[in-house]
Amino acid sequence: MVAIVSIIAKKSIRYQNADLMYLFPVYEKKLKEGAVVYKVLLVADGRTHYHAGETYSATPSREELFILLHIIAGLDWDCCHIAEVKAFLKAPYKNKNRAFVKVRGGHQRFEIMKALYGLKTAPRDYQEELAKRLCSLGFVRLVMCSCIYVLRKAERVIIVYDYVDDFIFTGSSRSDIKKLLLASATV
Question: Domain tally for the chain?
Answer without folding.
Answer: 1
